[in-house]
Structures are given as structure tokens and as C-alpha cells.
Amino acid sequence: MQRVCFLLKVRSERVAEYRDRHQDVWADMRAALFEAGWHNYSLFLREDGLLVGYLETDDFEAARAAMEATEVNARWQAEMAEFFEELEGQAPDAAMRPLTEVFHLA
């Protein structure tokens, strides 16, 4: 199982709304994530907008590609893009750059 952690930056003026939007993630989005192999997926948000994401998956690139192929993900990413800084024209999920794991206590 591959553990993946990534960082993104939510616009500081949109932090509260971003948090609110994630209180009721669409059922079809949740199902698509699960079916694509995103397990133990969590998002952590600091008040200044630093977003830390964590997930476990058998193959991150395959899991990301499976989500990219879904219609629900296209809708979700289009709605969420306005919340983020520094996407450089990418959708939020395409802008994820996994961090290198340097320690894990098993």
C-alpha cells in the first residue's frame, strides 16, 4: 500500500467556505474516490490556508487517472479550482505533488 501526502494552498479569504464545502461532499464523488482506490483519504486545513492531504492506495498514478476519467471529478475540480492559489492553470487534483516520505513508524 502506497501512502501519499501532498500540500495545496487554499486562498486565505476562502478557508471558511472551503471547510464548509467539505462538510457534505457529494455522495457520487465519495463513491468515485473509493472505487478509484483512494483509501483513508483525509484533508487537513490550517487557518492560513495550508491544506495537507493524505491517502493510501495501491498505485497513486492509477488512482489519480481513474478519478480523472470520471464526470463527477471534472465537476468537483471545476467548482474547487477557485479556492486555490498557485494552480498554474491546472485542476487542483492535477496540481498535487506528493511529498517524499522520510520516516514511517510501522
From TrEMBL:
BP term (GO), one: rhamnose catabolic process
Molecular function via GO: racemase and epimerase activity, acting on carbohydrates and derivatives
Classification via Pfam families: rhaM
InterPro entries (UniProt xref): Dimeric_a/b-barrel, Rham/fucose_mutarotase
PANTHER family the UniProt entry points to: L-RHAMNOSE MUTAROTASE
Name used for this protein in its record: L-rhamnose 1-epimerase
Protein source organism: Streptomyces pristinaespiralis (strain ATCC 25486 / DSM 40338 / CBS 914.69 / JCM 4507 / KCC S-0507 / NBRC 13074 / NRRL 2958 / 5647)
Lineage start: Bacteria, Bacillati, Actinomycetota, Actinomycetes, Kitasatosporales
